[in-house]
Design goal:
The complex is a heterodimer of chains A (327) and B (223).
Chain A lengths: L4 E4 L3 H8 L4 E4 L5 H6 L7 E4 L8 E3 L5 E4 L4 H5 L2 H6 L1 H8 L4 H6 L2 H6 L5 H4 L41 H7 L3 E5 L5 E5 H4 L18 E7 L6 E7 L10 E9 L4 E9 L6 E2 L1 H7 L6 H12 L10 H19 L2
Parallel strand pairs in A: 1-3, 2-3
Antiparallel strand pairs in A: 4-5, 5-8, 6-7, 6-8, 9-10, 10-11, 11-12
Helix pairs in contact in A: 5-9, 11-12, 12-13
Chain B lengths: L7 H11 L10 H13 L12 E8 L2 E8 L4 H9 L17 E4 L2 E4 L12 E3 L12 H8 L9 H16 L18 H7 L10 H12 L5
Parallel strand pairs in B: 1-5
Antiparallel strand pairs in B: 1-2, 3-4, 3-5
Helix pairs in contact in B: 1-2, 4-7
Classes of the chains: A alpha+beta (327), B alpha+beta (223).
């Protein structure tokens, strides 16, 4: 690990001011950042410790939504009684990720900002445009079993690994930030994450020093919710494919639907195409298959990950069938 | 007397660091003590980049306060093992993947390898050494012996610290990935225990006995 200077801050204003300088990183739980620093994939010159900032409340908003402080741990969010009752897809997604120890330490803001687990991003002996801009992408012609089939570019096919963010995307969450200039910004998850294009080293649209302070969930959408994760082990593994879905239907008609995929793209991948295809149709398997085709239209495999397209299709159909059966 | 209770670790340290002194029985004891003193001061690997910022931090471990002057890069795991001398907490992967370094931070289980010591001023840290002692084992320690919950033993302190934290989580009604209804508080079945303990790997694959040991303490109680 490269040397760094360490600084504690007392409030958000001090944090964003300290974070504005080049090379500074915020540290909260540290479960991803310290891993990357040990491997010298991340080498910040200064760490600004935000772990004691008062950003650890979960509050009901006036409109019946939920405001989750950025420093709420993954565990505390997953087991919150309101989340378990009203946003079960979010509890399920968080509990499907990492281990008990990691969830106890990892923050909500840090989970959103975790970096890809692309093998080549982690391997400093190989080219990687995300780690070392301009060096090339070893994954496109390499062992790309875990990589993106949607939203990738010729410069980077890394996938975003979060489970939590997939449920948040389906729930229409917004991410609140403070900039070094004291401005307040709000992003949808689709706006927070950048498409890799020719600058895959930039994961998000956050400016240097911009701090996530909260995630705001609107009131839960109508219907039943489910997160399903498909992976190589029964537990403690990143997803190959995951689906977060919400379905509101009676016996004849789907009134409302939300669909988001995980581990298929450089960002949690909400599918308005699938949602549009579902609404107004009968909640039957043929409808779900049509929706899955719409969601995956344009998906492209890179060899080892070709299976993900069929797996995503089947997983979405299975999730929607389960939701329709349990409505 | 302290020097007559030289541990396997001290001997290994003296073998590695004091070298030929081991060859002369009469001079064994003094070097061992000296090595122990020295190891408490020196945690920087020879090949590590030099020049890390040094910081003072007070860690409260097993109810005792330790004032340390450490490189800011020092993880809680290295602070415990190399600076405080509590070697019960093990270093496995050092990347949060194996769980051997699990300790309790303010009562919650975490990976000590992915936590900077300087961030923990004022926090309450409990290691395997703080759970029980010879003649007064923690119930989970006794259960691991009764159920033969290990082979080589390297993962065991992490398994036990993790199980202590896990049982507290279940007691608080936390659901898990295998809980059918996350709004409910599940019974601690074998499947629930296995899922909740998945952050602790065992290369010897003593998993059936580890789950049985934990189950015997949990008593199948409702979370």
């Amino acid at each position: 690990m490269r040397p760094f200077t360490y600084q504690r801050v007392a409030d958000v204003r001090a944090a964003t001011a300290a974070g504005a300088a080049h090379g500074v990183r915020f540290i909260a739980g540290g479960t991803n950042l310290l891993d990357l620093m040990k491997l010298e994939i991340e080498s910040p010159s200064r760490l600004v410790d935000i772990s004691r900032l008062p950003l650890n409340e979960i509050e009901v908003t006036p409109d019946g939504g939920l405001r989750v402080g950025a420093l709420v741990t993954n565990s505390d969010l997953a087991v919150d009684p309101i989340v378990r009752r009203r946003y079960p897809v979010l509890s399920q997604a968080i509990l499907a990720g990492a281990s008990g120890q990691l969830r106890n330490r990892a923050s909500v803001g840090g989970n959103l900002l975790q970096r890809t687990r692309c093998f080549y991003f982690y391997d400093r002996t190989t080219p990687c445009n995300k780690r070392s801009p301009g060096s090339g992408c070893a994954a496109i012609d390499g062992f790309n079993r875990i990589h993106s089939v949607l939203g990738a570019s010729d410069d980077c096919i890394a996938a975003h690994p979060s489970d939590m963010a997939v449920a948040m995307a389906a729930l229409g969450a917004r991410v609140e930030t403070r900039t070094a200039d004291g401005l307040e910004h709000s992003f949808s998850l689709d706006e927070l994450y950048r498409s890799p294009a020719h600058t895959p080293h930039l994961d998000t649209n956050l400016a240097q020093g911009e701090l996530i302070v909260a995630v705001v969930l609107p009131p839960p959408p109508p219907g039943v919710q489910l997160y399903r994760k498909v992976r190589d082990r029964a537990s403690y593994a990143f997803a190959l494919v995951s689906v977060a879905a919400v379905l509101d239907a009676d016996a004849s008609t789907i009134r409302h639907a939300r669909v988001a995929f995980g581990s298929l793209a450089p960002k949690p991948w909400r599918s308005p195409e699938a949602e549009r295809t579902l609404i107004g149709q009968a909640p039957h398997r043929e409808t779900f298959e049509t929706a899955a085709d719409a969601a995956l239209n344009g998906a492209r495999g890179y060899g080892h990950n070709d299976f993900k397209i069929a797996l995503a299709r089947r997983t979405l159909v299975a999730v929607l069938e389960q939701l329709a059966g349990g409505r | 007397m302290h020097y007559l209770r030289t541990s396997r670790r001290s001997l290994l340290q003296s073998a590695a660091l004091a070298g030929c002194a081991l060859g002369m029985e009469s001079s064994l004891m003094a070097p061992v003590a000296a090595v122990r003193e020295d190891s408490a001061q020196n945690n920087v690997r020879e090949d590590a980049p030099s020049g890390g910022e040094r910081m003072e931090v007070t860690l409260t471990v097993n109810k005792l306060r330790h004032m340390l002057d450490i490189d800011a890069r020092t993880t809680l795991l290295d602070a415990l093992r190399e600076h405080i001398g509590l070697t019960g907490t093990k270093k496995g992967c050092d990347h949060g993947q194996c769980g051997a370094c699990t300790v309790l931070l303010n009562g919650r289980r975490i990976n000590a390898c992915l936590t900077l010591a300087v961030m923990l001023e004022g926090d309450d840290i409990t290691t395997i050494e703080g759970l029980g002692m010879e003649g007064a084992l923690h119930p989970l320690q006794a259960a691991f012996i009764a159920h033969d919950g290990f082979q080589c033993g390297y993962c065991t302190s992490g398994q036990i610290c993790s199980a202590v934290g896990m049982l507290a989580e279940a007691q608080a009604g936390w659901p898990s990935h295998v809980t059918a209804d996350v709004a409910a508080s599940p019974l601690l079945t074998h499947a629930e225990i296995a899922e909740r303990m998945s952050g602790n790997l065992c290369r010897c694959a003593a998993y059936p006995n580890i789950v049985a040991a934990i189950h015997s303490v949990a008593g199948g109680r409702a979370g």
